[in-house]
Specification:
globular; about 210 residues; Rossmann fold; eight-stranded mixed β-sheet; alpha/beta
């Protein structure tokens, strides 16, 4: 079951979608961030919906949303600055809707930077970070090196045939930050032909994290 609602953000209302499994695990919620708004990124992106489906199938309530200026969300694109504020507002709403205390945070491409940048500000939401999934993080375009991410909770997922993000730069950044990384060999930026594999991988990783 999924339903669309609106959250008040700093630049206006934010369009959000809450997807609930038949039997949701208590205390846990996931929030997923979509790719670049100026290049067609929305919460209906196939990678995003695949990630949402994996959370749902593992019994975790999941919220996806449109960044400012996308879909029915108000405001204008803010180059991953105001979008962090959008995300924090959505996390607060997700907490209120589900009474969760543990947060799974995921982002694809542009959304991965927003998700990563929000980690240092999660204290304001009183939510504990359970896992952080960064898919195809554009480390060449955003200041990922300025972020301090938790090694135990983080996982990078990167295709080595990515035509948008230089894969080697992602591998080098992950090594420097001592962050675990999964290489999807021969995989493109948008995981063309690999979405089933991505979903299965996430299901298995989430299952292990719940143990």
């Amino acid at each position: 079951m999924s339903a669309t609602s609106y959250v008040q953000g700093q630049a206006g209302r934010i369009e959000v979608r809450l997807t609930l499994p038949t039997q949701a695990l208590a205390q846990q919620v996931a929030v997923v961030c979509h790719p670049h708004p100026l290049f067609g990124g929305t919460m209906d992106n196939k990678v995003v919906t695949t990630v949402v489906r994996a959370f749902k199938e593992q019994g975790i309530a999941c919220v996806s949303f449109n960044f400012r200026g996308v879909g029915h969300s108000e405001g204008k694109h803010d180059n991953a600055q105001g979008e962090v504020d959008d995300l924090l507002a959505v996390i607060e709403w997700a907490k209120q809707q589900t009474q969760a205390t543990q947060l799974y945070l995921a982002g694809f491409s542009f959304g991965s930077y927003v998700a990563a940048a929000a980690v240092s500000r999660l204290a304001s939401t009183h939510m504990a970070l359970k896992k952080l999934y960064l898919l195809a993080p554009p480390v060449h375009h955003y200041p990922f090196n300025e972020l301090v991410l938790p090694t135990q909770q983080s996982l990078i997922i990167q295709g080595d045939a990515d035509e948008v993000v230089p894969a080697q730069q992602v591998f080098d950044w992950a090594a420097q930050q001592q962050l675990p990384i999964i290489n999807f060999e021969g995989c493109s930026h948008f995981f063309h032909g690999r979405l089933v594999e991505l979903r299965q991988f996430l299901l298995e990783h989430l299952y292990a994290s719940l143990g």
